[in-house]
Write a structure and sequence with these properties.
Low-confidence stretches: none
Helix content: 40-55%
Order of helices and strands: HHEHHEEH
Strand order of the largest sheet: 1-3-2
Largest sheet: 3 strands, antiparallel
CATH architecture: Orthogonal Bundle
């Protein structure tokens, strides 16, 4: 176990972004590879403006990248930001590592709690 505490502010931000079910569905879809905005719209049944909104939130959180087609700017390609996903995976794994749980007796109260 490492003594480095995961950045709770960053973890909270990622979880806040991913707590929206449509954004989580977009991320799940992108795990299968890069998609254009119209594919996301069609597969998830979302209006184009909602796809744009949610991909913008995901991009601002650093979880996805977007790229406009060089020939026709109407087409926007969305992909998972692999380094950010690896960082998220490592941070959540470290934060929720059961090895971090320590035995502790409360400093107040009439009696110590039972062992779990």
């Amino acid at each position: 176990m490492t003594d480095v505490m995961p950045d709770t502010q960053q973890i909270a931000q990622w979880l806040k972004v991913l707590a929206e079910p449509r954004r989580l569905a977009i991320v799940q879809m992108l795990m299968q590879g890069t998609c254009c905005n119209c594919e996301i719209s069609a597969q998830l049944g979302l209006a184009a403006n909602l796809v744009s909104h949610h991909t913008t939130v995901l991009r601002e959180a650093g979880l996805v990248t977007t790229e406009r087609d060089a020939e026709d700017a109407r087409w926007i390609y969305v992909a998972i930001n692999r380094p950010a996903l690896a960082e998220l995976h490592a941070a959540l794994g470290a934060f929720f590592d059961p090895a971090r749980i320590q035995e502790r007796v409360p400093q107040c109260g009439p009696r110590p709690p039972r062992s779990r």
